[in-house]
Amino acid sequence: MTATLQAQKRIVGEPKAHLLLQERKIPAVIYGGEAAPESLTLAEREFTHLYRTAGESTLIDVSIEGSAPVKALIHDVAYNPLSGAVDHVDLYRVTMTKKINAEIPLVFVGEAPGIKELGGILVKNLSKIKVTCLPADLIASLEVDCTSLHTFNDFVYVRDLHVPSAITVLEQPGEIVVTLTPPREEEVAPVAVEEKDKVAEVEVVGKKEKKEGEEGEEGDAAPSEKKGEKKSGEAGSGSAGEKKKKK
């Protein structure tokens, strides 16, 4: 059963978009198909619940002010960067007899043996794939089986996906969907080695300065002793002279 989204017509600028958000209503627009674009208002709670279950790859019925529902896709959802609340919604009206381009989310199932056996890390290269098909053939999601990933040389490619025949995949067949990578090795911080070298360098410099200081003290002592000896000699000669005079 297709989910139905109730909507009200909205005259652009009346009321302002931020006032609608305060009233827990979301400004929206619906376009595509043969009809002209229309500005709408959606109930925040109803839309959030529907979007959580339908996503962007499930057909929904949009009923505008109680009129006959039209088939549409949730094409784009804009969020407020600060509050995370939905700011605006784009709805794309579809014609059931015409093919459309869409993106189908990928759901990864099964445990890769390489995770437990080798400590590998699962790397998802794609989270959705681009496809083209009739609106009625669109599916909500596509499963990716990870149980074939035994080693780091194993891959799941786009060509390995089990896609219904009514859907044409627009991605390259050789595009990698998921693989395993080796566990990250803990890097030894070079800071400890650098600090050790710095300490050794400081010790060597300290010893060198100490040695130079000791040599300097010894060098200063020699002249002092010589001066002292000279003064002593002078004093001695003076005494001898005095004794001679007395005699």
Summarize the structure.
With 247 residues, the chain is of the alpha+beta class. It has 4 helices and 13 strands. Strand 5 (70-79) and strand 6 (86-93) form a beta hairpin.
Give the secondary structure arrangement, pairings included.
Elements: E1 4-9, H1 17-22, E2 25-31, E3 38-43, H2 44-54, E4 60-64, E5 70-79, E6 86-93, E7 100-109, H3 113-118, E8 121-124, E9 128-133, E10 142-145, E11 155-157, E12 168-169, E13 176-181, H4 191-246
Parallel strand pairs: 1-4, 2-6, 7-10
Antiparallel strand pairs: 1-3, 2-3, 4-5, 5-6, 7-9, 8-13, 9-12, 11-13
Describe this structure in words.
The chain is an alpha+beta fold and 247 residues long. It has three domains: 1-95, Ribosomal Protein L25, Chain P (Beta Barrel); 97-185, Ribosomal protein L25, C-terminal domain (RNA Polymerase Alpha Subunit, Chain A, domain 2, Beta Complex); 188-240. Helix content is 32%, strand content 31%. The strands form three sheets. Strands 1-3-2-6-5-4 form a six-stranded mixed barrel. A hairpin with a 6-residue loop joins strand 5 (70-79) and strand 6. The longest helix has 56 residues, at 191-246. 14% of the residues are buried.
Task: Give descriptors for this structure.
single chain; 247 residues; alpha+beta; Ribosomal Protein L25, Chain P; RNA Polymerase Alpha Subunit, Chain A, domain 2; six-stranded mixed β-barrel; four-stranded mixed beta sheet; 4 helices
**SS field, number of helical segments:** 4
What's the N-to-C terminus distance? 145 Å
Strand order of the largest sheet: 1-3-2-6-5-4
| CATH T-level topology of the largest domain | Ribosomal Protein L25, Chain P
Structural domain count: 3
Instruction: Give the biggest beta sheet.
Output: 6 strands, mixed, barrel
Shape: globular
Give the low-confidence spans: 221-247
**Percent strand:** 25-35%
CATH architecture call of the largest domain: Beta Barrel
The residue-averaged pLDDT reads: 81
Helix/strand structural class: alpha+beta
Level-1 CATH class name of the largest domain: Mainly Beta
Radius of gyration: 43 Å
Number of strands: 13
